[in-house]
Fold each of these.
Amino acid sequence: MTAPMTAESTTQPPSPQPHFVLAPLAAHGHVIPMVDLAALLAAHGARASLVTTPLNATRLRGVADKAAREKLPLEIVELPFSPAVAGLPPDYQSADKLSENEQFTPFVKAMRALDAPFEAYVRALERRPSCIISDWCNTWAAGVAWRLGIPRLFFHGPSCFYSLCDLNAVVHGLHEQIVADDEQETTYVVPRMPVRVTVTKGTAPGFFNFPGYEALRDEAIEAMLAADGVVVNTFLDLEAQFVACYEAALGKPVWTLGPLCLHNRDDEAMA
């Protein structure tokens, strides 16, 4: 005879705590908003782990200590990193350490070596993370997410207006058109924008627009387009039109969670 069902026997086990692993580019302007994002996620009950180089992990020790005092599930994870593989000094573990522009490309390429320790960290977790959120140009994190079958969002710090300009400039060949022109003051219309946007060679949108950066740009765009969605440091009331257009251009969900810096303000400052 089958035992009668009871409330206790039909209770489902609790869902596991969501776990987000964040991988910012090792540069102040990229690390700071992603630290704020990690704190925001932790404040809402999700586990947040931010992976970075040893130097940045040391700099962020205060963040980890504050989270521990407040009993927030936020951790800073130090990944082994040796810039010497790219011929850089051993303390060049953050972009602010670079002494000349020519060192940026070797620095970004050196960061690709983070893929192995990052994958080892993820594989060693008791449970695979719910999601990886990586800086849009951290292709090493994108590769790990793909190999392990983990959903991945990319993070973009600028506004959706700027990001849409950047994406359309790349996808529709504006950069190639500009590079072929020697005139600095010639104006170009950014294609597929909901409003008319004109730029010059010096003001063209994008992060890897300089000669010699083409491979980095193409690699970053490929990783961006392969993501499952994007988190942007903006808010709908500011640029709803551009959020909608950016989402349509990407063909992926866009989550607007900014301004992330507001998470650092206490109740008194917010009044």
Note: DSSP finds twelve helices and nine strands in the chain.
Amino acid sequence: MDERVLVVEDEEHLARGLAFNLEAEGYRVELLERGEAALARLSDPSAPAIDLVLLDVMLPGISGYDVVSRLRKADHRVPVLLLTARDAAADIVRGLDLGADDYLTKPFSLPVLLAR
């Protein structure tokens, strides 16, 4: 499998766990801790294309909401799945309205993540 997943998560244990499990499923995984780094990586024309972004909402610096909003304003159509502990309906609607393709609240099960 050649699909690349960009995991943007500032909680190291969660990021490493996601990477381990996704790699076990055959995905290539890149880890970043900050939204600014994700935007830079996704706008780098010399870097391999990313097929999916798993994006935490509450990041240091700019939030996951800001990342997905900026991606969509730049007409970047990479699929984005927001991962967050924020489970209020307003938070979910905000993420989807900003352009996220899906929204999954923490804690989540790996089979549910893989299905999405």
Note: The chain has a mean pLDDT of 95.
